[in-house]
Amino acid sequence: GVPRIVLLPGDGIGPEVMAAATEVLAAVGTFDLAEHPIGADAIRAYGVPLADRTLAACAEADAVLLGAVGAGAVGAGAVGAGAGAAGSAGAGAPHDAPRPEQGVLDLRSGLGVYANLRPVRTMPGITHLSALRTDRAADVDLVVVRELTGGIYYGPRGDVRDMPGEGVPRPAGDGPARRAVFDTCVYSADEIERVARTAFELARERARPGRPPRVTSVDKANVLTTSRLWREVVQEVADRDFGDVVLDHLLVDTAAMLLVTDPGRFDVILTENMFGDILSDETAAIIGSLGCLASASLTGLGAGGGLFEPVHGSAPDIAGKGVANPVGMILSVALMLRFGLRMAEVANAVEAAVQNALAAGTRTPDLGGDATTTQMTNAIVKSL
Ligand code: NAI
Ligand code: MG
């Protein structure tokens, strides 16, 4: 039948890049598209950043395509009064107001998409940071596999006065100087094992003659208990079932440095939720712009379905100007075609069209050009 796709345009530039995605979909096939609000858009419509009916529609669809959420800058000073309330929905918003970003967190956990794949490849003609070290500016072709539904983004958080456990130092009084809050990073061996399997299987798929499958696992095992379990479980899975995969372990600070100085050394990078969030934004600098990065969030490599979204946020600084780079969104469509809908040939065609349009010199302002979102999209669609 016709693949059913839920579209969640969201906030800021989300709807602008989603329009580009639907142009590309219209050019490559027939799809049953159903649009729903998420984020600040959903708070306006339903009072919550992710309505139950929206999550249900996503769970029933063959794949979900998301733009971006976020009402704007995170307000300073509004640090939380309880679980889920740390931070603020925007300048002036009360700190217990529903946060647009919670919609994406709830969607990821609601769909159970524990493995987030973020491919990073050098783009034709685009200067990347590693060109600073011309000897190391070799072609970058890596994938960050980020654990997406566990760790510190999902653990208990709040005021230390409400923190469970004995022996926690609790500040007395109520003045600002007495404020103390906590976040918690929790990982089970099962959560680590399943995402490690995804990374190892992906490494096998990416192996070429002369290039054996290779995974670099990133943690902070010299300090964190969760990281020590992470390293232990990843190594066990490798020893037991993936003897052909070359595995090494790096501390996250070292990995951050090597990504800038020697990005060509990486193939598949496996890491936990927060480290993956930060390192994948760093890798954006390697290829020139956050606007070019795509992601797939899956329940395993061959599972089908899933959630597909660009890595960037709602970019309030450029929203409404028509200049957002649609490449990250369009490459997310390609990932959806490949992993979500098993249409690999069409996915290849979309990726080639992006490469061709960039190589021909069409670039949005974030890449040093002056093309609008529409012009960039048209160039890609024309090249299809
Ligand atoms: P951001 O990714 O929205 O923007 C960072 C910088 O990159 C800005 O200068 C922006 O103009 C630029 N940029 C981002 N995407 C671009 C594109 N497609 N084309 C051209 N330039 C682009 O991150 P920021 O500013 O930290 O966060 C803004 C809002 O987005 C916040 O509310 C944040 O919570 C939310 N956010 C949402 C995400 C999601 O929906 N998955 C992910 C990251 C942030
Ligand atoms: Mg991020």
Automatic annotation (TrEMBL):
SMART domains xrefs: Iso_dh
Positions of the Isopropylmalate dehydrogenase-like domain: 4-380
Enzyme class: oxidoreductase
Transmembrane segments: none
E.C. number(s) listed in UniProt: 1.1.1.85
Source superkingdom: Bacteria
Pfam families for this protein: Iso_dh (PF00180)
Record's keyword terms, sorted: Amino-acid biosynthesis, Branched-chain amino acid biosynthesis, Leucine biosynthesis, Magnesium, Metal-binding, NAD, Oxidoreductase
InterPro entries hit by this protein: IsoPropMal-DH-like_dom, Isopropylmalate_DH
Family, per entry: Belongs to the isocitrate and isopropylmalate dehydrogenases family.
PANTHER family found in the cross-reference section: 3-ISOPROPYLMALATE DEHYDROGENASE
Protein name: 3-isopropylmalate dehydrogenase
Gene source species: Streptosporangium oxazolinicum
